[in-house]
Specification:
By secondary structure, the chain is of the alpha/beta class. The chain has 2 domains: 201 residues, Glycogen Phosphorylase B (Rossmann fold), CATH 3.40.50.2000; 154 residues, 3-Layer(aba) Sandwich (Rossmann fold), CATH 3.40.50. It is 45% helix and 16% strand. It contains 15 helices and 13 strands. InterPro entries: Glycosyltransferase_grp1, Sugar_tfrase_PEP-CTERM_Stp1.
Length: 394
Amino acid sequence: MPPLLLLTHRYPYPPNRGDRIRSYNLLRVLAQHYSVTLACPHDEPVTDQQLNHVKQLTDRVITFPQTKAKWLNAGTRFVSGRSITEGVFFNRKVANQIIQQHQSRPFEAAVVFCSSMYPYVENKPFDNLTKVVDLVDVDSKKWQQLSDEASGAKRAIYRREYKTVRKLEQQIADQADAVVLVSEDEAKVFRQEVPGRAPVYGISNGVDTEFFQPPKAARSDRTAACKLVFTGVMDYTPNVEGMLWFCKEIFPGVHAQTNATLTIVGRRPVAAIEQLSEQPGVEVTGEVPDVRPFLEEADIGVSPLKLARGIQNKVLEAMASGLPVITTQEAAEGIDGKHGSEFLIADTVSQWQESLQALSADPKQRSQIGQTARNKVQAHYGWHAKLSPILDLL
């Protein structure tokens, strides 16, 4: 099979967080058609089992640990007018290894996952290489949102990062052969704000509907003490801020009215999230080996994110598990679902409380929404079907 370079900003296995889920399934699709060289950093130890699993899908794996030296690289990039993000993920030795491999057996194409990995193919040896860049989200918009909500030194740093990441995105728009984002809505934002010569496509996430399934036994028909669940990496700012807002503004009233409980499932919870377990009705699990039992035991899935961009895997996974999901408009972006039948949209505190109280009191509606959500995901969100357009671009 023709050789292809895949650059990802994290080791893609195990697929236990949103970016890894997409990059892992992208690797699986590419490996069916190309001899893939994977190059990526890893911010957590990679076990022999994890390394061997990925090696079965690839021709070669080049991975390196992110040490404290990443901050020196980040500082160097900062001084040179580039983004801190680029410096965190760049490693000169790895860049040289990739160049050497390209010179000995030229890659037919490169797929770059996330803007932070693009500097690896900026070198002259890659000038004529076909480059498809999967930005996933418009990262500069995240930094802009963060800067708008921050103050003091953080605001200044976030604002600068917004400008330097936007500069990198403009470079990609001008140089790449195709740019991919996780939804047509996100692609539209990129076309409007970062115009360039590269065609821009929305290619959405999928979900493994064999892995995520409704429980074999019917869910409870309880109308009191309903179980709410949220899943996600709990040191990720949008998840943290979303759950802090939910637990401060929304959940206390719902808990008082319905005696509902909330389980927050996710690795690396920050201190502010861990402290939520002191709140009546809230449980914080930390990392778990498998999120499916928590989805199966729940009655309602919640996704109260305000900083969300692109498609939220957590929403698709809950829908595939047959759960009725209440979500913000931002967290529902890119999912072609109907409010009221396949999920519920709530943005204000009153909308959230009304939706939660209504679903808690109506097990029949919960079941109907969960089933239509499952049907939607099965019919339209399989991974290979979703990502195969990237093969067409290549």
